[in-house]
Amino acid sequence: MLTLQEISDRIELEKLVTDYAYAIDERAFNNLDKIFAADAYIDYRDMGGIDGDYAKVKAWLPEALKHFPGFMHFIGNLSFELHGDEASGKVACFNPMVVPTPEGGTETMFLGLWYQDKYRRTAQGWRITERVEKKSYMHNM
Fold first, then answer.
1. Strand partners, 122
2. How far apart are alpha carbons 89 and 76 in whole angstroms?
3. Which secondary-structure segment (H or E) carries 74?
4. Other beta carbons less than 10 A from residue 51's beta carbon
5. Can you tell me the distance from the alpha carbon of 80 to that of 91, in angstroms, rounded to the nearest whole number?
6. Are 65 and 13 in contact (CB under 8 A)?
7. Overall average pLDDT of the 6-15 stretch
């Protein structure tokens, strides 16, 4: 049976990963400061991005995503392992992205991936200390 602390931690971690999805989808990149630890490592290479420390990846995101008129992250199948003030997790993500075509139209690209995360409890709450994307599929329509 879960303790009240474990229940609270899981709810807080669920909110953290949900807040990430909204920050990216709303292009509210400064909101990521409340989601990632300052010393976090992020690896988006499996889906065509970059890897590096949080500051490097945060600076890269607006430029990388400006070419997409729309996208939305749907997350689910949340799995968290708690270890006191640290945790790990796996989060499934379905991410349709609108892609401009050379003819002036658009098509939709569908991405399926998992976020493999590490978390740390801080005085300000839980933060992601490592996020690694693992590709499941990419499909253009």
1. 125
2. 12
3. strand 74-83
4. 15
5. 9
6. no
7. 98
Q: Beta partners for 120?
A: 86, 127
pLDDT digits (tens, 9 = 90+) for 75-130: 999 999 999 999 999 999 999 999 999 999 999 999 999 999 999 999 999 999 99
- Residue 109 has, within 13 A of its CA and on its CB side, a CA count of 14
Give the integer Cα–Cα distance in Å for 67 and 114: 23
Give the number of C-alpha atoms closer than 13 A to the C-alpha of residue 121, restricted to the C-beta side.
Answer: 12
Q: Spell out a b/e string for 56-95, using b for 16 or more CB atoms within 10 Å of the CB, else e.
A: ebbeebeeeeeeeeebebebeeeebebeeeebebebebeb
Cβ(35)–Cβ(128) below 8 Å = yes
pTM for the whole thing? 0.95
Residue 129: exposure state from Cβ atoms within 10 A (0-12, 13-18, ≥19): buried
